[in-house]
Design a protein that fits this description.
Distance between the termini: 36 Å
Shape: globular
Radius of gyration: 17 Å
Largest sheet: 7 strands, mixed
CATH superfamily: Vaccinia Virus protein VP39
Order of helices and strands: HHHHEHEHEHEHEHEHHHE
CATH architecture: 3-Layer(aba) Sandwich
Number of strands: 7
Structural class: alpha/beta
Oligomer: single chain
Number of helices: 12
Length: 261
């Protein structure tokens, strides 16, 4: 049975499918295909167009960051933790050494219905709460690690353990992770689209330095909703989204941090 936290994967899947069909923000024909077949019963705010726009923008920001990192080091291992049914492997058109999409075994089981492994692309059923599987990954000098839509369901200790394990495994690594702030976690207990799938975030951070160590440095903060993506909306939608999802209040709730090993 799929955990409630895993069911949240259908929210970004719907969002990416929605914007892709409209021909804005993100092109993701695979998301369209999967959503059409899965048709998970989302409702309420989890299926709002505003959230869909936001999910599309978040994916695009991370795609662009990953593409940039692979452009500089095309021999890198890509590690996508909490991949869900995301098709980043098809969206990012850059050479890589090997790519591992990781999620709970029950999620990977569904994923295998839509994606096929190759010599360079593998899917791994594992929990982010454990780190032993990281040691089983092949040795690479460079790694690029994506944690999207997962940190808020973990804990500070678990994330620190993940970072520590990857810093021991890979001499050089770049990490991108979206996070809730503590304010967002408190607000989510009252109102959050993920409640539609009976999930609840439990972890938020205000200072990215909480994960900084002698081996791990903070690289910077990414813009969650870049102006060029907002500009793909028009009229009222553009003005409303900019005010509600890209303003000061929205930025106080949700962030994207990057780290370097």
């Amino acid at each position: 049975m799929m955990k409630n936290e895993s069911k949240t994967l259908y929210i970004p899947l719907y969002g990416k499918s929605f914007v892709s069909k409209k021909g804005i923000i993100l092109s993701d024909k695979k998301a369209e295909e999967i959503w059409e077949k899965e048709k998970f019963p989302l409702g309420g705010k989890s299926k709002s167009k505003w959230l869909a726009y936001f999910m599309g923008m978040r994916a695009s920001v991370i795609d662009n960051w990953l593409s940039e990192k692979l452009s500089g080091k095309p021999e890198s291992l890509v590690l996508h933790i909490g991949c869900g049914l995301d098709s980043r492997i098809e969206r990012v058109k850059k050479p890589f050494g090997k790519w591992f999409d990781v999620d709970f075994p029950e999620v990977i089981e569904i994923r295998r219905e839509y994606f096929s492994e190759t010599e360079k692309y593998k899917m791994l059923g594992a929990s982010a709460s454990e780190t032993g599987w990281i040691n089983s990954l092949p040795d690479f000098e460079n790694a690029v690690i994506v944690l999207e839509g997962i940190s808020m369901y973990l804990s500070e200790e678990i994330i620190k353990n993940l970072f520590a394990a990857t810093s021991e495994k890979f001499p050089n690594a770049e990490i991108i992770m979206d996070v809730y702030t503590k304010k967002a976690v408190k607000a989510s207990k009252i109102k959050n689209p993920i409640q539609d799938v009976e999930a609840s975030p439990s972890f938020g951070i205000d200072e990215p330095s909480v994960f900084v160590t002698e081996k791990i440095g903070f690289s910077g903060e990414m813009e969650m909703a870049p102006a060029e993506k907002i500009n793909e909306l028009s009229g009222f939608e553009k003005a409303f989204f900019k005010k509600m999802f890209a303003g000061k209040f929205a930025k106080s709730l949700y962030k994207i941090f990057t780290y370097k090993i």
